[in-house]
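Give me the fold.
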Amino acid sequence: MWEGLGLQVVLIWLGIGLCSHALTALEHAQGNVHNHAHRWQLSLHRHRERGKVGQVLHRSKRGWVWNQFFVIEEYTGPEPVLVGRLHSDVDSGDGNIKYILSGEGAGTIFVIDDKTGNIHATKTLDREEQAQYTLIAQAVARDTGRPLEPPSQFVVKVQDINDNPPEFLHGPYHGRVPEMSNVGTSVMQVTATDADDPTYGNSAMLVYSILQGQPYFSVEPQTGIIRTALPNMDREARQEYDVVIQAKDMGGHMGGLSGTTEVKIILTDVNDNPPKFLQSVYVMSVSEDKAPGEEVGKLKARDPDIGENGLITYRLTEGDGMGIFEIVTDLERQEGIVRLKKSLDFEAKRAYTLRVEAFNEYVDPRFITLGPFKDSATIKVMVEDVDEPPAFTSPMYSFEVEENAPPGIVVGRVHAKDTDIANNPTRYMIRRYTDLEEFFSIDPEDGIIRTTRPLDRESLPWHNISVSAVEIGGHHQDAKVRVNIRVKDINDNAPELTSQNEVLMCERKNCLNKALVQCNAFNGTASIYVTRKGFSRITQDVYLLPIVISDNGSPPLSSTNTLLVRVCGCDSRDAVLSCNVEPYILPAGLSTGALIAILACIVILLAIVVLFVALRRQKKEPLIVFKEEDVRENIITYDDEGGGEEDTEAFDIATLKNPDRASGILPRKDIKPDMQQPLQQRLQPGATSADVDRFIASRVLEADNDPAAPPYDSIQVYGYEGRGSVAGSLSSLETVTTDSDLNYHYLQSWGPRFKKLADLYGTKDSVNDSS
């Protein structure tokens, strides 16, 4: 590009030298043309003046007209470039006319010689910055400044040179084209721009060419459209291409300027490749104990295409394991996964052969001629032997046994066999968590199941047990099977009522020959009918009806059930009101007020009892006097003591007499005798008698002969009997602390009542005598 620019500068300098001579000739030619135009205009004006009749002809003033001047851009000569010259017809060359220039760039870019009218450009001009300048020319008298010519506007155009190379404003570019495209397939279009004037010369005439990317692509010189240049370009062989496109002005000729851009072209994928297996035979192994659904192995075909063009689907087409195996496609990994569809048995079959096919789901019809888009391979599956548990001949067993059968009856037999080549023997056992009460037993050798006790269908009609078969030897593999045992019914239960055993019946209702109730038994139902008119619950409120129920079994059984029929009071709609008989015994005319009075009396009696108990407790007296707690001692205390028997004035013996004894009967104060017997006439001491001994003796005799008296006496205590008494003191308190000469042997003659007292004091006398 710089070589072309340098050459262009040289040419410009040569052109300037040639133009400097041509300008002088041009100025003269322009003056001649200008003068010729003015003269043509003047002659035309005069002709028009002569054509007017009756008018005075005057010579009109000659005018001046300026259209445009040209100046070459980018001029870098030592002298200012002459743009043009202004000249008026009135200028006689004596210097009396002054030319004035105004407008765009006047005085800075463009200067004028006010005497000659020559206009020069003092600066380098660039058409791409400003293509033209508008100026105004004037001719005035130098001395007075009077306008000699009217102002004339003209344009100075900057003449273009090829100083701007083409540019790709949108580069670099990226294009895409499908692989295997035909020659001439359009990829994309690139466009360059040139800042030079397209209307002047060939400076902006561009031509496109390809500098890099051949022989794969080409570009149209005039449009810049990039096209494929080779057929069958394969993406799998090469996917990206870097292309360089050039745009050159001057029509592509020598000396023109150029610009380049890069274009990255990518081949997009099409389905032009079928899938291929890397191996023709795939060998897999699987253990015979694998469960259906488990993976056996994987295989993968290769497809160099990408996206949906490279999607592979796998399927099994033939082989002896079509029903045993299946293959599924892993879309993410593009693999075929072989899985087990049914259980395997090494002893039955040890190897399988399958044919697998890999194919594309999406096929481009443009490339169908490239062949079938699929591939096939062989899969060999080897079955591995494992130690398997015994296998029962049936997945489940069902047996029947009659209820109440004797222990040891055979229920059925289960059988299991070791399927391995070793064919080890097996032993049987019942899993006890399925037969907790141990109703059954099994022979460990032959698998025969027997009962251990009679079974009852009514309590448990089904027994579901689990039997295990354990391999003897090897790894002691075991298997289990379910055994369902149904207990068959026999006629061992008599029928009985299943419904309620009590029914309610309304009294005083005519129920003759009407069904009272339906009784349900296990074998059917029966209706009970009433055979008389009306019932009264006062007369009889409950009826016990025995019912005999028999079945038709073998042997037939029967039972007697009692139906309780209760007579109840009902309303007019036969709704039961009451089934109790007590309300009919109570007086019918008892009013509410009477009931309240009765309750009030009960409350009052309870209050009295509570008050009585409270008073007794306050006095600390027992509520009930028991016989063993009865106290018969009546103690009479006298504060006034006499002087003994000799003192007849201070003490009167009559005070010792009970006034109640006047009638001869002394009432008891503590108990009421069961029987009364007439007593003998007792000794009644007179009022003046001092025979106290006889009085006491009579009282003792009375007590001894009284059948209603308790076994103790009522003793009267006298604190002091007086001095000189022959009997002395009767108090025992004094004898404790003082020596006494009394002889207590006489107490023995007082009878059994005083035996305890006689023993106490008699013993004391005996001790004193012995001492």
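The chain has a mean pLDDT of 78.
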